[in-house]
Design goal:
This protein is α+β, with helices and mostly antiparallel strands and 371 residues long. Helices cover 20% and strands 34% of the residues. It is built from six helices and 19 strands. It has a 19-stranded mixed beta sheet that branches.
């Protein structure tokens, strides 16, 4: 059951044109209020505040990674209720905003990223949307015109979004500077059941992805059926997990393969867009070009000498046609890796607000998920 967060009074108001508040009587537990957004077609259900998360941070001084583990162990019903049906869908994505305490540190705010199967380490499309959200909902003390920097702590580290600001509201496009991104491995042979041997690159852009051209799997990223691309990408993900050991320089909590990105193979620099599709988590399909995926792909292209610093490339989603741009803006080191900071730019928009309730006697109150 959903209604706009600012809906009118309960029951029959008797006033024509005034919507009743839903539900008509209070229902424990407390309702969940969200702000609905999308970036390039990929949804973002923002939870501006969750008392249970704030209480855990305050009581135990949790870092964001520790809060991520706590939410998965003790509060996962919140994710399931908002991401799964009947309130969500297979492609739903969310962000839990965290304010203050050790989880935020010296950033303006922190966020946990939610999806159908769990909690990711980084999400570029969410960062672009949260940059706007932070300004419009007053989470940055003194926004500056014409652009405000918003420091956002993600599970993978702090990223900075740069958001247009006219003195009253945020605008587009938004851009962000990534955590250090690097090529974890290139030209790795992987045996994929049903497809034979393929060669993949593995890049890190706040989370790890495997990359390969759809052509290696007998597919075309622009014209093949999405279900065929999803099936093939998922097979690659599972094969890479079994055949390649990932390592993260700072935390083994982050040393996991998030998904596979199939491309059109156009990695050399060009003014023309290059198209890809990202299949992540449990066969979830990104509707946008994937911000952390663009970050990792730029890092791979830079590592291979295919692009130079500040050479901008455009990335197109094969699902919606939406566009992000990306470029490597600075060389750096991350552990033993030669890395780059990547700038990603895109457009994020508001789509509404909602209030979700859960009745105790509802056997499906925490949602359901099926393929």
């Amino acid at each position: 059951m959903a209604a706009a967060a600012g809906a009118g009074g309960g029951g029959d108001s008797g006033e024509e044109g005034r919507a009743p508040r839903l539900p008509p009587r209070s229902v424990p537990p407390p309702p969940l209020h969200t702000v609905e957004m999308h970036t390039g077609g990929e949804p973002l259900r923002v939870v501006p505040r969750l008392e249970a998360a704030e209480a855990a941070v305050a009581a135990a001084g949790l870092s964001l990674l520790e809060l991520r583990r706590h939410m998965a162990a003790a509060q996962d019903h919140v994710r399931r209720a908002l991401m799964h049906e009947p309130r969500g869908h297979r492609g739903m994505y969310g962000a839990l905003v965290v304010r203050g305490g050790a989880a935020v540190g010296d950033a303006d705010l922190a966020a946990l990223f939610l999806h159908g199967a769990g909690y990711s380490a980084m999400c570029g499309h969410a960062v672009l949307a949260l940059g706007r959200f932070a300004l419009d909902y007053g989470l940055v003390a003194a926004p500056r015109r014409p652009e405000t920097a918003v420091r956002l702590r993600c599970p993978c580290g702090v990223v900075t979004a740069f958001v247009p600001w006219d003195g009253h509201r945020s605008g587009n496009p938004v851009r962000f500077h990534s955590v250090p991104a690097f090529a974890a491995a290139t030209d790795v042979p992987i045996d994929v059941p049903g497809h034979g041997k393929v060669v993949v690159d593995i890049g890190y852009g706040g989370t790890f992805y495997a990359f390969l051209s759809a052509e290696q799997l007998g597919l075309d990223v622009c014209s093949s059926k999405t279900r065929d691309l999803v099936s093939a990408a998922s097979a690659v993900t599972e094969a890479v997990k079994k055949q390649f050991q990932l390592h993260h320089p700072e935390s083994e909590d982050l040393a996991f393969l998030y998904g596979t990105i199939l491309t059109d193979g156009k990695d050399a620099f060009s003014e023309e867009p290059t198209t890809n599709i990202c299949v992540f988590a449990d066969e979830q399909v990104d509707r946008c070009p994937t911000g952390s995926g663009v970050t990792a792909r730029i890092a791979l292209q830079y590592h291979k000498g295919l692009i130079q610093l500040n050479q901008s490339r455009t990335f197109r989603s094969s699902t919606t046609g939406s566009l992000f741009t990306g470029k490597a803006v600075k060389e750096t080191k991350f552990g033993d890796y030669n890395a780059v900071v990547v700038e990603v730019s895109g457009e994020a928009f508001y789509t509404g607000t909602a209030t979700f309730t859960m009745e105790e006697e509802d056997p499906l109150k925490y949602g359901f998920f099926f393929k």
